[in-house]
Amino acid sequence: MTPGQFREEGKKIIDWIADYYENIEKYPVLSQVKPGEILSSLPENPPLHGEPMSAMMKDLDEKIMPGITHWQSPHFYAYFPSNTSFPSILGDLVSSGLGVQGMIWATSPAATEVETRVLDWLAQAMGMPEKFMSGSTGGGVIQDTASTSALTAVIAARERATKFESNETGVRQKQVAYISTQTHSSLEKAIKMAGIGKANLRLIEVDDQFAMRPELLDAQIQKDKKAGLLPFFVCGALGTTSSNAIDPLRKIGEIAQRENCWFHIDGAMSGTAMLCPEFRHFMDGVELADSFVFNPHKWMFTNFDCDVFWVGNRNELINTFSILPEYLKNKATESGAVFDYRDWHVQLGRRFRSLKLWFVIRHYGIEGLQFHIRKHVELSEKFTQWIKESDDFELFVEPPLNLVCFRHKKGDDFNMKLMNTINEKGKIFFTHTKLNNQVVLRMSIGQTHTELQHVEEAWNIISDTARKLA
Question: Would the pTM count as exceeding 0.85?
């Protein structure tokens, strides 16, 4: 394909994407295909000869699109938002076009330095402690997901606790990590992958708001110490996955600091809300954190994948992950004057992810981002009020931000039937969880193009369907 052909076909694909967004509400939000249906529509053998773009686009429309669940639909309320925006899409396109592999500063200085600057912008805009800025002891790095950041934090914590002996001799000490019963499953996976072992992961019970109880954390740490174990890692949640519960971060951080445990804060979705000063009380105690993670690819209009991971002491990351083979040696690295982000995480190769974030921040500005976050919270408050005014539904827990947990009063089976009936029709898509062993319905309101009329329509569908099923 020549540059001229690329220009011609690229314009068609931009038009296709724009048409998709203009017509996105015509699609069923949840894909209606059966397992294996897409697979069976695709040839078993690859083409021997090249095919025209027109044939690929025809198959995209006819074979691929039926198998798409439309995460960018304004009627998508499932799981968590994974929103994007046109500036982000364009930034990602430029990144793909440049084809940068930014593993070290020398392989593309702009990839490193744009990332450094953009993450400093965000730290400043979100009221993060000075230590998370690149000009201080720490700094930020873009990972793919919060799961990878969790693994990075656990491994760095393991090495700090063992004075970096584990990397040399293997994990020998009985180290213990602490999360709540509501913490995301990625932390359990990280503990397994880091060689700590699931048996050495303590799940701390939560209160009636599903937030970790710090007094139980403290008691468990003392019990483990008496048993000759080494506490090394504590995770607090700035918004749990099931209910968006906010852990008491200051109290947890004080315990972690006293016990020389690495304190990691997981703000995967709700971290974005810290752009708004009125929500920052939720992260009281953030200055006690050794690391903090949030996903712009959830609620900050930046397409997947883009995860921001800040640390208070970057040397602890570098000493954990740095390996310098001969083929990567260069003058810039040896000078010590640059960041080589491959030393800040597991992977060596790196995409130019910061470019789409740069596009988003410059397009919206901080005030524009704040506007949309506040709008989503206001929409969630309206939905919450409708629940409270209903005779048939009940609010399960007061929402701190943009996730509403509620249920119909007729019980678990009815709630599951209600949700599945609605999702199968395709107009809206929402999901459930279990809290206190009860089925709870979740409305996660955070898609880029969701407006009041969409949330009103969702509530009408839910309440009308409930009346018909009852």
Answer: yes
